[in-house]
Amino acid sequence: MSDAPTNTNGGAPVLDVDPGIPSGSPKLAPWELRFTSYDVEAFEVPRGREEQWRFTPLRRLRGLHDASVTADGRIDVSVVSGFGDAAADLAGSGTRHETVGRDDPRLGDGGIPADRVAAQAWSSFTEAHVVTVNEARSDDEPLTITVGGPGAGATAFAHMQLRLEHHAQAVVVLDHRGSGTVAANTEFVVADGAKLEVVEVHDWADDAVYVGAQHLSVGRDATIRHTSVTLGGDLVRLSPVINYRAPGGDVELDGLYFADGGQHFEQRLLVDHSVPNCRSRVMYKGALQGVEGGTAAHTVWIGDVLIRKAAEGTDTYELNRNLLLTDNARADSVPNLEIETGEIVGAGHASATGRFDDEQLFYLMARGIPEAQARRLVVRGFFGEVIQKVRVPALRDRLEAAIEAELEVVGV
Questions:
Q1: Among candidates 210, 212, 213, 256, which has minimal Cα distance to 233?
Q2: What is the pLDDT of residue 290?
């Protein structure tokens, strides 16, 4: 078992169910049957019948879930100031990038693994990347972190932590690309009064498998705007967890995913309101399509929101919408809301999955727009609400171009 840093669980109830973890190490947080641990052996090997894994095609994980695979590659990480052609080194930017060992005491500040793959990634990584922002960066100068896969046929375990110190501010693009198989933990640690806007892009090659846990730690009066974009890869499974550390935290989670035939994209969210007077908003939108006669595209969105007894004054809402562009596509959407106190500002959820809106198509075609072009306009409008929140113009253009390329696949 690997050494684990000292950590707390954000004021949530704790239960020590693993006597093998040293005294002073993180405890396991109960919520229904959910618990957390750095020890991979604390989790049973998934069989596909568990609630946490019932939608995931385990045979396509290439052994990440049962320890039948070992790391034979590594990820490449680069950090620059700016995006695209405007990128420059970090000198004088109030930001530093460090490569550290697993004994660095900061690791684990964001959260603790909550499934076997995340625990395996924790136990198996050899070096971690820590990016720290110490001051308020200009919104016009984003920070770009590029993560490259280990290469076709190779496997890597990864760990990254993005830290914003007190009252720091940054816009960050976290860009994943390349080939291979990757299991990773990514921590976003946002201190009191800090503000983070991050766009996490998964534009992997067709052969890639990526299973990632995102741990978002929100300080007092801190703000996180997290946008997740999934466009490429054979299988991509993301599990963001929001952990409020003190009152006043404000989190928005937005997501966009576009799956072609044969792709499996899965999003499993937990927003854990454990302290008073915090806010959360969740909005994910997905489109699915497949080539006739080919393997169906499949997306999964699980949105869990928990409002604990101590979390009075909570204000939360979550929404998931899916647009089916062809017959051979499947979208599973399961919003869950558990409330343990009546003293809240508001709470709600919504989910909808369907085909093109015939009224929208009729409206456009009645004004002389050909059907194919009308369908494209509907898809652009469907995703527009999410894309417009991306405040990096060059990245926004790239996402719009990627969606156009996806639509070309089946001639929509």
A1: 210
A2: 79
CB proximity list for 42: less than 8 A, separation 6 or greater? 18, 28, 35, 119
Q: How confident is the model at residue 17 (pLDDT cuts 50, 70, 90)?
A: very low
141, 170 contact by CB (below 8 A): no
Tokens describing residue 342: 């009546």
**HSE-CB for 168 with a 13 A CA cutoff:** 23
* Category of 384 on φ-ψ map: left (φ > 0), alpha (ψ -120 to 50) or beta: alpha
The contacts of residue 322 (CB under 8 Å, 6+ apart) are: 285, 286, 287, 288, 299, 301, 331, 333, 352, 353, 354
Q: At what angle do helices 393-409 and 371-387 cross, to 10 degrees?
A: 140
β-strand partners of 180: none
Strand partners, 257: 230, 286
What strand order describes the sheet that includes 223-232?
Answer: 76-81, 143-148, 169-177, 195-203, 223-232, 250-259, 279-288, 315-324, 346-354
C-alpha 1/C-alpha 20 separation (Å) is 9
Burial of 129 (0-12, 13-18, 19+ CB in 10 A): buried
Both structure tokens of 357:
């809106």
**Alpha-carbon distance 287 to 297, whole Å?**
10
C-alpha distances in angstroms, 26 versus 1, 9, 29, 190, 286? 14, 7, 9, 19, 36
Predicted TM-score of the model (pTM): 0.89
- What are the strands of the beta sheet with 181-190, ordered from one edge? 95-100, 128-133, 155-164, 181-190, 209-218, 235-244, 264-273, 297-307, 329-339
DSSP 89-138: --TTTTEEEEEE-TT-TTTTSS----SHHHHHHHHH-S-EEEEEE-SB--
Residue-by-residue DSSP string for 270-300: EEEE-SSS-EEEEEEEEEE---TTSPPEEEE
Q: Around Cβ 99, how many Cβ atoms within 10 Å?
A: 10
CA–CA dist 32, 34 (Å, integer): 6
Count of helix runs (H) and strand runs (E) in the chain: 4, 18
Nearest of 54, 58, 52, 56 to residue 33 by alpha carbon: 52
Query: What does the pLDDT look like over 279-318, one tens digit per residue?
Result: 999 999 999 987 666 678 999 999 999 999 999 999 999 9
Half-sphere exposure of 181 (CA within 13 A, CB side): 15
